[in-house]
Design brief:
alpha+beta, Immunoglobulin-like, 4 helices, 31% strand, 15 strands, 281 residues, six-stranded mixed beta sheet, single chain
Amino acid sequence: MPSKKQLISATVLTLVIFLSAYIIAINAFQRESDEDTISFQAGDKEVLDRVDVDVNVLYIDPVREQLLLRLTLIPTGDLCNGFSCSNSLRLVFPGAGRTGGQGEVIPEGATLEPLDLSYVLDGQVNDYPFDRHNATLIFYLSQIDPEKAVLSAIRVRGNIPGYKVGIVAKDGYPQGFNALDMTIVRSSTVKNTALAGMVVMWVIGLCVSALIVLHLNGWYNVRMPAFFAALLFGLFSLRNSMPGTPSIGTYSDFLAFIWVEGIVALALVVSLAATLKNRPV
């Protein structure tokens, strides 16, 4: 029986360990949140007569291979006329679908409304949680009358939980173009959570394997078939609770889920056979 002093020491040590782990977790969250916040700028902001393109990342769905952006145009210098543009503009966005807002031509004096653009992501979602997706964003602005390119500066921002976005400007395009390469991967939290889930599955699989060995060596418990049956379906819930997981057939499934599910199914068959052999009443 531990003494009162030992209990107090153990309690204090437990609290210190818990508080330390809690502080480390909060700091890790803050660091990841700062790292995953998108903040990217490109273009020449020294030019006075330009149009700033403010791009906000609204939605990322690797399963549907969809990226949704919201563009806000902000004219400056002689191009600015309050909340509108002093010239008619043409906005070209190759490879994107328009989901709302203004069209490609923005008439002179029209109020500049946000424009939502949808892009198709290029990647293999089945590589979850190590999948990587790419999209190329190209924006071109020109003045209609007279026809000439309009210089622009672009800013991309956003913070989508569960994803880390990298952006690199692409060179070699004519004046008036802004081209960006966007790379999307899972955040560290998602990867670590998925890996932890796979480790838990394998621990369950190893423990169930030990129970199979005991069954084959004559040990019997009437509750085992119910336990294995519940575990067989419970693994599906554990697998589907991983953040952002696609349908069954991903890389993570072949690393853990399918194997452990097979081990549990085998254990259920063995325990049923043991039940029939012992014929409990």
